[in-house]
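Predict the structure of Carboxymuconolactone decarboxylase family protein.
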Amino acid sequence: MARLTAINPAEATGKTKELFNAVQSKLGVVPNMMRTMGNSPAFLESYLNLSGALSGGTLGTKTGELIALAVSESNSCDYCLSAHTYIGTNLVKIKPEVIEAARLGNSADEKTDGVLKLAKALVSKKGLLSDADVDAAKKAGLTEGEIGEVVGHVALNILTNYFNNTAQTEIDFPVVNAYQLETV
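Done. Here is the predicted structure for Carboxymuconolactone decarboxylase family protein.
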């Protein structure tokens, strides 16, 4: 059961209504995560702005989705795993085996593997990377700008993971559960 209330878009007012209208026009729906974030228009707007800015980065939509899956698995966020599995499969057209590998921080593509290893390291080491971690990312082909974007994507997904785990947001996508690995 949800700990925080998801606002009905038809009952929203003020800045929350304005933000919901923008989400509705872009996605055709206001997902429960955003409806719940709408309790604080400043929070919802911050999330939307960071997400929008990163979507225009050099890593691309597919890589952004793969990072989201890796981070969400690390943080055992079933809401985000469900959302990003759905988006990755149905909108970005990522193959199921690629999605499964990404959850564990792996990819057959060397550069994408470097991105996912970096993302997993950022989560597990709470951002306290070693020189070897950064060197491995560079050896995998990431530019310094792309390394910065990976940090941004990880931060965005930690934000949504922590929010949804706190709120126990009702999942409005086909449910995907975390593997519950002892170490991720």
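The mean pLDDT is 96.
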